[in-house]
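Blackboard transcription, Thursday session:
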Amino acid sequence: MIELRNVTKVFNPGTPNENVALRHMNLQVNEGDFVTVIGSNGSGKTTLFNLIGGTFMPTMGQVFAHGENVTREPEYKRSRYIGRIFQDPLLGTAGTMSLEHNMMLSAYKGMKSLKKNLNAKRRSYFRERLSELEMGLEDRLKDNVGLLSGGQRQALTLLMMVLSRPELILLDEHTAALDPQNADKVLHLTTKFVEEYKLTTVMITHNMHQALKYGNRLIMLDAGEIILNVDGKEKQQLTVNKLVNRFKKIRHQEIDDDELLLS
Amino acid sequence: MIEGIFIEGLVYGIMVLGVFITFRILNFPDLTVDGSFPLGAAVMATGITMGWNIIFTVILVFLTGWLAGTVTALIHNKLKVPNLLAGILTMTMLWSVNIRVLGNRANLPLLRQETMLTWVRGVTEGILTPSAAVLVFFIIVVVVIKLLLDLFFSCDLGIALGAMGNNEQMVINQGVNVETLKIIGVSLSNGLVAVSGGMMAQFQGFADVNLGQGIIIAGLASVMIGEFLLRSNRIWILTTRVLLGSILYRGLMYLGRYYGYYINLTPSDLQLITGLLIIGSLIVTQMRREKSFYERDAKVRERGDV
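(Written on the board underneath:)
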């Protein structure tokens, strides 16, 4: 589905602030995979997503999608088969527009036409889909999205992403900014949609329990490198303790990110 | 007199609709307007003097304005220049272009020329007074433009434009090229501004290269006045309030001209008044915001459970 070949990303090359965010990374995500990504701050998780999503180009190496080289394809074109959700619930929707207009935007990917596709039939379809979220949003089609809570907004973003039928979804700690109750709800919806639409998923999380609980593969990043890449049975048998020990064995040091351990 | 205010409000209203599109919908403060307004006037006046078909000339006016907007959007997109600077560049260059269009002079009178308005006055002779006829004509023109815009902003492309002004990342994530959207939006805006300029040239009976001075500020003031009148997120209400704001602004300017005389104001002071009007509405908006923050905090304190 998506493949990184020997990808390196250097920020501010040739300046005193030079920073190698990703180092000779190889990663293949197959159709139907659900990969969880963990790693401490600055380990390159978000850079990895930006390279897959096309926000910027790698310094070296190539990105392939469906076997085609898409390294130089701009972000908006790659968005036609990649769905992405950010940690900030405000980034996925337009706050000063109504729910129905937001949903209309994601009804299909790509440049919009002069057709007016928002009609009664479409509205009842939107209402139906919104009721799946069980948040009472189905009665608020005409309300501005800015009036919703963070949890509601992130759930809406999730639903909108599913409506646009992406092949691969990138979740960048999409529940980290929510309170525990809403975070659970959004995660639950995520797994429901992933199964329903058989979406290939890569999910960044700061929470080791989450990383172990969800998905069929787990990768761990540190200093721009994949230091652990497990799948299948091996992943099922992992525990938080085993993860911490494996990190120690590989890196000969303790994990220094408290958040990663405490969560 | 009262017809005059409405006519001015409506004719400039087309321009204010354009300013509203860039400033409020696209969140792209576009200063091209100061150049594309006289451009529209110049093309219209030239077309009329040359005896071109009037409908064709209006379309040409729209297209030249469109082109001016495209130039601004391209400078912004391709050279990664801030949108304000891109607009100023185009606006400055247009000043020279406008003088060329006018035939190497600063103004072109339309006396005794066949314009849309002489036609309107002729057709309605005996039914309406000349100024009432012009008013009815502009009401029809402006309402048609407004309805077309309402339609445009409720289609998929129009919705995408609105979303881009609010959240560019989201629109990119839907697989839409925001550079193309910006070109469409800024061009459409300047097309409208040029049409407004073309209509103004006919109404005033001349085109002048300095017709555009301070137009952007007048447009912005009109948009802001409108925002005090109604609150909504529906596009047809937003466009209506833009037009109301424009008429109200012209009314205020009329009062300034008429009664300002008593306190020694001259017409040249109106730019200053307009600027102060904008600053005033910004202050009011700011105070409202702070007040609502304060009140919300006060509610929490009263509740006393935190």
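Lecturer's comment: Chain B has twelve helices and two strands.
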